[in-house]
Known about the structure:
Strand content: 25-35%
Strand order of the largest sheet: 3-2-1-5-6
Oligomer: single chain
Number of helices: 3
Number of domains: 2
Largest sheet: 5 strands, antiparallel
Structural class: alpha+beta
Amino acid sequence: MSNLKEQFERLMNGQIPVAVISGTVVAVRPDEDTCDVQPNSDDAVVFDVALLNGIYPAEGAEVLIGLVENRLVDTFLIAADKVTHYRLATEQENFLTWAQDFLQAIMQLTVTTPAGPSGVPINLPAFQQLAERLPNLFIK
Length: 140
C-alpha cells in the first residue's frame, strides 16, 4: 500500500492539500456509502469515510483514505485490498439490472430453423448459475 500512497502523492503534486492515511475498515454502511477506518497509527477511528467510487470494502480490509486539507470530516476511500461489492450506475442505468436483463434474454433465446423455432439454449443451466451469482458482485 505504501507504493500506492507515494504514487498518489506524486500525482497530486501539492495541487490540492490531501493527506493519505492507511488503516483497516472496522464498519461499512452501503446504504450511506460510508465506512469507518481504524488508522494503522492507532489514532482514533475515522468515521464516515465517503465511498465515492462505487467500491465497497470488506470489514477488515486494508485501505488508503484521503483527507482533504487534513480534515478528518472530509475523508474518502482511495483503495482497498478486499472488496465485497461494486456499484456501477449512471442516472439512466444500473449495471446489475442491465446484466440481469441481458442474461435473461440469452436464456430465452430461440433461433428460427427450417424445422421451426429452436428450443432454449442447451447450456441454459450455465446461464442460470451466472444469473444467480451476479448479485454477489454488484449493489443496486
